[in-house]
Amino acid sequence: MNLAARIARRELRGGLKGFRIFLACLALGVAAIAAVGTLRAAIQSGLEDQGAILLGGDAQMEFTYRFADADERRFMDSVASKVSETVDFRSMAAIPEDSALTQIKAVDDAYPLYGEVILDPAIPLAEALATRDGLPGAVMDPVLISRLSLAVGDRFALGSQEFRLTAALIREPDSASAGFTLGPRTILRTDALANSGLLAAGSLYETRYRLALPPSTSLESLKTEATDTFRDKGMRWLDSRQAAPGVETFVDRIGSFLVLVGLAGLAVGGVGVSAAVRAYLEGKIPTIATLKTIGADGRLIFRIYLIQILALSAIGIGIGLLLGAGAPLLLAPVIEAQLPFPAEIALAPMALLEAAFYGLLTALLFTLWPLARTEKVRAAALYRGMEGRGNRPRGVYLWAILGTGLLLIGSAVALSGIPELAFGAAGGIVGALLILTLAAYGLRRAAQGVVRILVDLPELTGLDQPVALGELVDEATDDAFWTFMLDRTRFVLEQRGYDVRKRPEFFYKGSVQGSPPQYSQEFADWLVR
After folding, report:
1. What's the 3-state SS for 252-320?
2. 354, 268 in Cβ contact below 8 A?
3. Are 355 and 34 in contact (CB under 8 A)?
4. Contact at 8 Å (CB) between 121 and 110?
5. Are 39 and 255 in contact (CB under 8 A)?
6. What is the DSSP secondary structure assignment for residue 232, as one 8-state letter?
7. What is the widest separation between alpha-carbon atoms in the chain?
8. What Rg value do the Cα atoms of the chain yield, rounded?
9. Which three-class secondary structure state does DSSP give residue 242?
10. How far apart are CA 402 and CA 397, in angstroms?
């Protein structure tokens, strides 16, 4: 292994020429996975750390179509240091010439227990909701203000009660736990609805009671006590341990989906990785042939280039991790400002480790086959430019490739949290790679058929010696298909009649029994080419 490492290190001194595609495919795939993982970790951390702010309290007791009764209020007062009551329902905000649906949140003086309501103009919420000149104040979402063409100071009606618009609602701290709403938000005082007729018998509304609890309170014990005490009264419990379950589930699922998308991109990029490795090894034919000539066996050759590929993979993965972690950090102020809850984007070691793990497995999966094929190639075949066509790796390498693929799929299934989606994505990736493989095989077979026709009809080709083919190659365009066709033509010509083993009279000027053959100038030129 020391010898392989020394040779690999010396070869890498030549730089990264030929590996730009390899590094780009690997780096971009790893960067996508790392960026998604970093953002998901930041959001999940924000949901956990800011649970009380997102919920609006340490715990919440919720009722439908009614307010809490005397027993329930006594229980809340006995366990909480402070209680805030909110009422949530839908109504129509009306002006003389128009109306629009709005989601109303009626609050008391204690709201919000945690966090801050941000308004424009920047005034305290208590001042914005205060009653002046007989009209209670209210704040509205800017979308609703624009919809109704209102301005600060204008009047609008909810039910039979008029209100005065005092500010635009920029952010409410507990919006993430509000759930699905059908209209933009309006906030006002609960007691201002007394004459509106909106909370009469039969009205559809929900009441939420947020509790500020002492630090030593056990949320699990309190939840058990509350649910046991009010089991048959329709009370629903929520606490800061899972303040916004809908948001958390959405973030987790969309994050897993995007990671799988990044993994699919990395797998498709693996085709470029494999092609880059194949091209690199073809460029190393003289080196490999020389090493084999002086006694290097197949295993040493495999280790030399495996070490190089792993070193280059580390560079590509490192670049991907820098991009994947750096982009969210640079854009953190913009991203955090768009989130409906507090979140701090920071380095996420586990997300970066997951991305690096996927990148390493992908690099191994798509490079083991071309690397392993070098083990069986003979030096003589390499010198003739036949670098192992048709050679299959030994069984141990086939098992290694299969094991790496299964490990990659199994890791994606285990880490995604959505096994069905992961299996579906894996099936789609394998199917896409299979289609690409079949398409390449079909193109190759079709090209080979055309080439054989050309070779078998020399009166059409005008090619009677392999050296003449060089002129045609030099005149060819950069079109990839014709370059491929010319390469196949060269190979078939060698196989059909211009191989030294089949036409020795063309290549040998003469030979004397017991002495080495004398090579013709044509053969020397062809060999150099």
Report:
1. HHHHHHHHHHHHHHHHHHHHHHHHHHHHHHHHCHHHHHHHHHCCCCHHHHHHHHHHHHHHHHHHHHHHH
2. no
3. yes
4. no
5. yes
6. T
7. 124
8. 36
9. helix
10. 9
Lookup: tokens for 343: 């979140």
Long-range Cβ contact pairs of 415-424 (< 8 A, separation 24 or more): 415/259, 415/354, 416/256, 416/259, 416/260, 417/252, 417/253, 417/256, 418/253, 418/256, 418/257, 421/256, 421/257, 421/260, 422/256, 422/260
| 421-434 residue pLDDT tens | 677 777 777 777 78
pTM of the model: 0.60
**Residue 100 φ/ψ, nearest 5 degrees:** -155, 150
Provide the CB-side half-sphere exposure for 484 (13 A, CA). 13
Q: Rounded to an integer, what distance in angstroms lies between the CA atom of residue 82 and that of residue 97?
A: 42
Length of the chain: 529
DSSP string, 471-490: HHHHH--S-HHHHHHHHHHH
CB 148 within 8 A of CB 93: yes
Task: For residues 473 and 396, give the distance between their C-alpha atoms in angstroms, rounded to a whole number.
Answer: 39
Tokens coding 346 = 């920071």
Question: What is the per-residue pLDDT across 428-476, written as a single tens digit (0 to 9) for each?
Answer: 777 777 887 788 777 767 766 665 555 554 444 444 444 344 444 444 4
Mean pLDDT across 515-529:
50
Predicted confidence band at 506 (pLDDT cuts at 50, 70, 90)? very low
Q: How far is CA 123 from CA 108, 166, 185, 224, in A?
A: 17, 9, 18, 40
Q: Which residue has the tokens 């307010």?
A: 67
CA angle 236, 240, 246 (to 5 degrees): 70
306 has a pLDDT exceeding 80? yes
